[in-house]
Amino acid sequence: MAKRRKAKQRDSRAPRFWGRHAVAAALDNPARTIRKLWATHEGVSGLDLPSNLAVEMAGAADLGRLVPHDAPHQGLVAEVEPLPDIAIEDLLAGAEDGRPLVILDQVTDPHNAGAIMRSALAFNALGLVTQDRHAPPESGALAKAASGALETLPWCRVVNLARALDQIADAGFWRIGLAGEADMELSEALGGKRVALVLGAEGAGMRPNVAGHCDALARLPISDRIESLNVSNAAAIALYAHHERRSS
Question: Which option is the CATH number for 8-80: 3.90.220, 1.20.1060, 3.30.1330, 1.10.238?
């Protein structure tokens, strides 16, 4: 397990999570500090709450005013502290052959990032690496999309992604950048005991400097009837392809 360090102050406001799955996962995470919980009687039913947790009972309409419009709070809203940071050295120190690493270059949409976290956890990824300034902060939308993975998947935020990719290579990872214009298909690029999958933002893709720090660029074999896939869908397919390659 990668070691966590004290979280940097990224936002003066503490994140608020909503929805039963996201809030329950945060409550179950010993590394997560819950500042306060607002709940309906129905929402809090069945939850194992710490005795020292401040809980305020409220109506569904009151909870709705604590979260973005139409957010599905399911009777639960929690104000939390951001998780402590994980250093890239600590993450790589726990690397195991066969477990992929996922790197995101300027994927800032919390729904995409959360969905990628969920897929990464589903396929037993070692962790997620993003640039600190070009990634979504912890938020209710991210936690909801991650469906609990935010609390479990190690997430390392780095200052310089290109430098981190050098460290990842030094740890024995074969770095594959997904690019629609690549000549090679992903199935041809996959190989080696350790694989790092690098994905860029939708539209812009990977930045040239990040692509230049990959060992191979590869594309998914999609039909020419569509230009590209959503980045979270591309990540899920790439992780599945890696899993199938390792299992064969």
Answer: 3.30.1330
